[in-house]
Each structure stands twice: as structure tokens, then as C-alpha cells.
Amino acid sequence: MKHVIRERFSIVFVILNTLFFPVLAQTAYKISGRVTDAGTGEGIPFANIAIKGKTVGTTSDENGKFSLTSTQTGDSLLFSSLGYQNRAYRIIPVATQTIDAVLTSSATKLQEVKIYAKGGDPAYRIIREAIRRRDQFDPDQLTAFQYESYSKVEAYVNNFANERKNGRKGGPVGRLLSKLPAIYDSQGKPAVPVFVSETFSEYYQRANPRKVKERILKSRASGVGISDGGVSAQLTGSSFQQYNFYQNYISLLRKDLPSPLGQAWQTIYKFRLIDTITVGGLVCYQVDFEPKRPTDLAFSGTAWIDTTRMGLTQIDAKIDQRANINFVDEIRIEQEWEDVGDSTQTSMVRLPVLTQLLIDTDEPTPNAPGALVRMYVAARNVKVNVPRESKFYEPPLELAENYSEKSPAFWQTIRPEGLDPNELRAFTIVDSVRNVPFMKFLGEVVNLTAVGYYPLGSLHLDAGPLLNSYAFNNVEGHRLRLGLRTNSGFSRRWILGGYLAYGTRDQQFKYGMNIDYVVSKKPYTIVGIQKSYDIERLGTSSENLGGNTIFAAYTRFGTLRRPYMQEFHNTYLRSELGKGITQTISLRNRSFEPLFPFAYNTNDRETITASQYRTTELLFETRFAPGSLMIQSDNDRFSVEGNNNPVFTFRYQLGMQDVLHGDFSYHRFSLNVRHSFRMGVLGRTRYQVNAGYIPSTIPYPLLYMPLGNETFFRVENSYNLMNFFEFVTDRYVGVMAEHNFEGLFFNRIPAIRRLKWRFLATGNILMGGVSQANTALIPATNQLGEPVLGFQSLSRAPYVEVGYGIDNIFKVFRVDAIHRLTYRNNPNISTFGIKVSAWVNL
């Protein structure tokens, strides 16, 4: 997914940008100690500690240790943890004190359990049986289920109060941030909240045909760089927080993590039976699991499986920094499953009713701060095997008109259980943080970097995009561009935009404008009118670029070969018809005014050749993306596609002669298929298929020109060793494929596995040709007697390039070595190239 997600990226960039800001805290009272198990004496991790009657609390670390620093005090300190009895200890009113708490287990242990197995730990037999019966417990096997969902997301900047070497203090930015209010983490250190949200929704899922739907009823969000909580509500609801450990892989942070209850359980994991205890009224086996190789991207943790039905009751799974994943110190998922009554079955079914996700980022340097993200999702009023009619599930993600709810009284009644006092304070503190002038400025910088537009305050206008503001090329010289668009503050129905550009060399103004109107939001339907007059170049049309904004901006630099001026008019209607289908119908009128020697033969008896033309075409485009979710961001709308479903786009263009001065009658057909799928432990494969056919006789600028790449960086949807406008075809089939082996190879090499490199293999192939009739349209000279530039078409041999590369170099860079195997004698081409790309990659 390459689309810009404004508020989601704002949250991520704020966290990453604030990783380098040290903050200090002023305290009055300090309580420290350790929480231990009364039976074993071992530390109890993540126990809750709070001062009775006060809004101050913390949690113990993985060893049971805690430190609580606060200006508030009370008469007692309360300790609680899942599976243990609550206990209170008296607080002495002194500045520093130590309290070591001992908690008694509330679980009921059996007298004795003997398990006999032939070879190996008996945990393997338990896991094998649980997997054999997973059809009885897998929620995806139910006819349908639904529930009310409450989700909460918090993001903090932490670890900025660490002592530095030689007693040095933080820099000026650190001193500035030290004045911000903070919340104390599990070790009594301050953590600054930068984003907090709550969402209340209804979630529905059906098995056959597979359908999901989420109605977001209420939401509130606050954070640095967040102007509208609508996107946050859609991205933090239940639709994106589904973690089913009965599936083969858990999708998290765009990674495929093998489940300990999946098909690869015995290949990736090793298991150990620890105990048999009572959890939630069920006698359960306690089974520990961990990856066979610590560097594998896999979970370690504990699963509790009931002894009677062999179903998952509870699981605590984590991934630490040893695994091949970037910027993360630890990922932890805690999940509780409960039996749910079902009148259609004799036995109870089981669903996850509580999921907690913690993501703790890795500090880039020893003195740099980190970031912490916590997500909490709870389900209630669960109903199973009551499917709704198919059309009920459209659209899959629906945001209520009055979704924004900021009343604390409402959320107090909706929360499934009381929040920790620190979490309650987070909603107040984050508003204070975001209104600090420096943080407000930081939020604006993040938005400008991620989105490319700068909001102009009360005018309800955005200026941009930043990437298109300047360019330099041989035709225009210095190109200056200013663009404006309205935002949701102006209207949520009307969307206006436009730009004005000027070239210092050609001394010519260019312009563009658009008016869009949202006719309906269910189904989402929009109509629009566009008009522009600007310079273009053959081979880099918007259809070829495929929404790659960075590459599109780059193509306006340097030497523009075969440039032309184009007047463009477009009227369109786009509607989301449901089931992942989006239909677009448009009427387009375009002129072609070449700035290079060009001509084509005509059928006009008085004029043998012509150098300009105009086309009028009716376009029908159908996009089928099963499983995708449409996200609304202010007045932008984009798709978040599923990982395992192919996306089909079919386009038909009908050229109409003598309609709005159109010069040609023609037909164009094209089909694009994009797909990504997992190949087990071997990694993930992505491929794209393009096919098209133009059965008409028309000038070559109207034929298909595969996208080349003459830059030093790699472009995903291009042929990276092909020049711009190197080939022209009127019938073609192309395949672009990439397989990422992830850490399959490098994780097994001791010398470099700590680098967390990932190996990739790529291959692109294009077959096609041009009819004799289209080739015959090119005359020897134009009307001025200048030689007319022709084009090259593919012969029987396909164009082929293959490559291999290393990803995740310094956690950011990717380097590809690419070989061109065919058409190696073409002029001014490269048969071998090194392409570099960079992005924040987990």
C-alpha cells in the first residue's frame, strides 16, 4: 500500500520525530520495590500498582520491580495482577521508601497430573491435539458472529529521563520538552502522551461468503498533528485489530508472524509443558513456546489450553528485539478467550473477548528516547451464527455522521472496565502537550512532510503539494508552481482545487483546476470536472505512473524528450458499488500539441499529414478489490487492501470521432492484476500482471508505452533498466514479480544475522508488438520538412530483466542489482544497474 494516510502517518512520524527529545521530571515522593509470587518467590511482571484514592499508578517490569514517583501520596498502595489476589500495603509519609509486595495466586492447582508421551515434551502432544481440533474453536469457522467493540489506543514518548554519561544534561530541545506534563511508566519514569483515542463500534463477520463490517458509532482522538479524528477512528477500530491465533499467520505491522497454533508450529517453534492450573474456571495446560532460532520473526510466550476440549483459553505472546524486525524492542499480545452460548450447537463456541497489544520501540542510540504504543480491544454482547443478508455488510467500514463524541460521561458508561488512573490523565495531558507552541509546530511539519499540503488556518485551504512546487528542465527552465485546495472545514461535499505554474525559459503559464461533489456517502458516489493546460512527456503519463507522486515529480526534471502541450478536460462519475467494486465512468477530451518533430498520415485527401490532433473518449473502469477497506480522510478517500486478495482493474476506452472535435475512432482494452501472498517460511511474493489490446489504427502517442526508469533509484511499477519511451506497443502482456525471502538466509549466517538483512529476487518481463497499420502512420517528414521521429516496438523476443537485492540495510535502505537480458544492443541503454531505494521499513 503506497497511499498517503494522513493521520496514521502523523501519529507514526510524531513518535519517531520525538525519539530524540530528552525530558526530566520533578518529583516529591518515591516508592520502589518488587512484586513477587508467594509460592515461588519469582517476580510478577506487569502487575498494577496504584495509590488508593489518587490518580497515580504504575506497573511492574518483567522482573516484578517497580518505581513510583509522584507529588501525591495516600494511606495505602494497592497491588493487583491477573491470576492473583489483590493486596494493599500501608504507605509511610516519607520522601523515599521501599515496599516489597507478595501476592497469592488465585488459581487452583491440581493435586497431581501425570502425562505420558512417547519421546519429547508432552506439550507437543497437547499442541498437536489443539491444532487438530481448531475447527471447533476458530472464529472464522462460525457461520457468523457479531459484537459491540470498545477500543483504546495510546502512544507515548518514553525513556527520555535516563541519566547520561558524565552527568551531561539534555540539549535545548530536551530542556524545552522537560517542561511538558508527563505520566509515569512502569519504572517511575516520565512518559509524554502524543496520541490517545477511544472508539465504540459494532463489528460483524460472516463466513460464506466471507464478509466483514464495522460501524464506528462514536470516537474521540487527540494527538500532536491530529486535526480530525475520523481516520484515527477507522484505523484503530476492530477491523484492524483482529488477531486470530488459529490462523497460520498473524498480520501485525505489515508483517506475517507465524502462529504457534498454525501449520508451521513444529517447524518454527519448540514447546514446553509448565503446569496445569485453573484459568477462568477451566482447568488448563500451561504451555510455553519460543522460536527454535531466536532471530526468526516468531513469537515466544505462553498459551493456556483447557484440558477437556483442548481449546485456547488465554495466550500471552511477544516478539523481542532479537527477531528480524526494525525499530521495535518488544511486541506483546495478550488475549483472553471465553465461551459464548450458541443455540444452534450443543457445545459452547469460544471467541477472543479481550485483546491487549503493546509495541515498545527500540531506542536508536543509548541516550535517545523511545516510544510506546498500547492498544486495548474488548468485546461484549457477542452473538454467533446469526448471519445478516449479504448487502448488510456493505460498505465494510462505515463511519457514523455524528461519530465525534467528546463527553467524558459517555465514555465512562461505555468502557468495559475502569481505566488506570494514568490512562485517564492521558486524555487531559495530551491536549496540553499538543498545544505547546513547539509541539504544534512539530505537528505542522509532520503533516507537511507526510501529506505535502500546508493548511492555511481559517481560510479552510491547503497549499501544495510540496513535491510539485519546483522543477527544472530543458523546456521550461525553472518551473514554479502554486497549488491550493479546499479541506473539510470548507465543505465535506464540495471539493475545489487548482494550480498555476510558470516556466522561466518558455515564459508560459500552465494551469489546472477541479470541482468535485460528493453525491452520496452510502454508497459513496462522487462527480467531478477537471480542466488543465500543461506540459507533458511521452512515456510518463499519469496512467503509467500509477499514483507514484515522488516519481511523477522527478519526471519534470532534466531533459524532457518528446515533450508536448496538452489541454485536458474530464468529467467523471465514480461510485463504490459494494463487494469491493468501484466503477468509474468519464468523458475526456485531450489535445496533443507536440514540441518535437512529429506527424502522422491522415485519410484526408487535402492534407497528407498532420502534426496535432484532439481526442474525445468515453472511459469505463471497473476495480475489484475483495477484502479492501475504504478510509475517509477529510476530503480524501483511499483504499487499504487486504494482504492476500488479488486486486483487478479493467479499463475500456472508446474514442469517438467528430464528438467535441475528436479526430479518431478507436478502442482500447487493458487489465491490471496485483497480488501478494505468503509462501510459508519461504517469505512473501508480490506480482503484477498488465495486459492490453488496441485493435485500432491511431498515432503512436495513443498506443501503450511501458514505464521505464532512467533514475538511480528503484521504482516498483516500472521496468528499471528500460529508458523512457523506449518501446511502443498496441498489444502486450507484462509481468512484474518480486519475492522477499525475509530473514530465511541471512538469519542463519552468524557473522551478519545481527544486521537483520533480507534477501530479495525480482524479475520483469514484457511481450508485445505493433501492427503494420500503426507503423505505416509515421511519415518520413512533417509539414515543415523535418524528419519525423519514430519509435521502436518489441519483436518476437520479450523484454526481460532480472535482479537480486538486499533489503533493510541500516533499517532503511534497499539495494538492487538488475541485469537486462534482452535488447542489449539498443542505443543509450544500460545492461546492468544498481538501484537504490529507501523507506521506513519494519
Summarize the structure in short.
The chain has 842 residues and is mainly β.
Number of helical segments? 11
Radius of gyration: 31 Å
Beta strand %: 35-45%
CATH architecture of the domain at 522-838: Beta Barrel
Q: Please give the share of residues in helix.
A: 10-25%
> How many strand elements?
44
Largest sheet: 18 strands, antiparallel
Which secondary-structure class do the elements indicate? Answer: mainly beta
User: What is the terminal-to-terminal distance?
Assistant: 14 Å
- What is the residue-averaged pLDDT? 83
CATH class of the domain at 522-838: Mainly Beta
Low-pLDDT stretches are: 1-27, 108-118
* Oligomerization category of the chains in this entry: single chain
How is the CATH topology of the domain at 522-838 named? Porin
